[in-house]
Amino acid sequence: MTRAEEFQGLRPLLSSIAYRILGSVTEAEDAVQETWLRYEALPTPPDSARAYLATVVTRISINVLNSARVRREEYVGPWFPEPLLTDPYQDPERTAELADSVSTAALLLLERLTPLERAVFVLREVFDFGFQEIATAVGRPEAACRQLAVRARRHMTEGRPRFEADRGACERLAARFFDALTEGDVDGLRELLATDVQLVADSGGKAPQWATGFLGADPERAGRAVLHPDLRVFVQPDRGPLRAVAARVHSKKGIRLRRQGRACGVRSHARS
């Protein structure tokens, strides 16, 4: 097997690690590409390509995340993880962990962690790396990595809802919501939205957006905003109508917005 073939076999794992640490598909792809360049430049192959590549992509991702934190502090409006429509890495033994770790809610909780805590948590809780492997990947003693893992788990637990909602019920409710959304059924949306509903949006810094969103008291207002957001932003007759297409977003039910055959946005629910 050539070095390139070996790397391609491990690319799904590397991409998944980088995405969960960074919360950005674009930055994760860049981190994986940089990992390949370093691997390709090695004069002699490492004893374990998997261990070496996981270490390199983790360290690159930590460095990128440190820089990204500064940018996100100056970001206009709320920052949300870049949607991941298809997870490239599959592991039948860890299907649940992999799916949960790319939900919008989980990725937003990961934002509360330091870059090191986040990397340790991802490697340990999502990909089941041993602490010796993690210590090598993040460049810290094994004992320190165990402490980082404990702190990360505590922060993640503190931020989770007090009660776990039934997955099946959540899926059915989400299906009703997005059916109403794609059909333009404002009355149907109003029936589904709670009085403390919160609607927020992130344009990726590439388009106008609400600075704070809508919060509470008037579910009809939020329902109409979901269907017809600020007319200056989304409804542009000269560019053609928006078309909503059902899709999986962060492993949850969602929709992709398309105009003239091109994707121009996604919508999903962050919490159940």
Explained architecture:
- With 272 residues, the chain is mainly α.
- It has two domains: 3-159, Butyryl-CoA Dehydrogenase, subunit A, domain 3 (Up-down Bundle); 167-268, Nuclear Transport Factor 2, Chain: A, CATH 3.10.450.
- Helix content is 54%, strand content 10%.
- It has helices spanning 3-22, 25-41, 49-73, 95-101, 104-110, 115-126, 131-138, 142-159, 167-183, 186-192, 219-227; strands at residues 198-199, 214-215, 243-249, 252-259, 262-268.
- It has a three-stranded antiparallel β-sheet with strand order 3-4-5, with helices on one face.
- Strand 3 and strand 4 (252-259) form a beta hairpin.
- The longest helix has 25 residues, at 49-73.
- The chain is globular.
SSE blueprint and pairings:
Blueprint: H1 3-22, H2 25-41, H3 49-73, H4 95-101, H5 104-110, H6 115-126, H7 131-138, H8 142-159, H9 167-183, H10 186-192, E1 198-199, E2 214-215, H11 219-227, E3 243-249, E4 252-259, E5 262-268
Antiparallel strand pairs: 1-2, 3-4, 4-5
Helix pairs in contact: 1-2, 1-3, 2-3, 3-7, 6-8, 7-8, 9-10, 10-11
Query: How many helices does DSSP assign?
Result: 11
Provide the low-confidence segments as ranges. Answer: 210-217, 227-238
CATH class of the largest domain: Mainly Alpha
Number of strands: 5
Instruction: Give the SSE order as H and E letters.
Output: HHHHHHHHHHEEHEEE
Secondary-structure arrangement, i.e. CATH architecture of the largest domain:
Up-down Bundle
Q: Strand order, main sheet: write it out.
A: 3-4-5
Number of domains: 2
Report the portion of residues in β strands. 5-15%
| Main pleated-sheet profile | 3 strands, antiparallel
What is the SS-derived class?
Answer: mainly alpha
The CATH topology of the largest domain is given as: Butyryl-CoA Dehydrogenase, subunit A, domain 3
Radius of gyration based on Cα positions: 20 Å
Tell me roughly what share of residues is in helical segments: 40-55%
Instruction: Give the averaged pLDDT, no decimals.
Output: 77
Output the CATH homologous superfamily of the largest domain: PhyR, sigma-like (SL) domain
Measure the end-to-end span: 45 Å
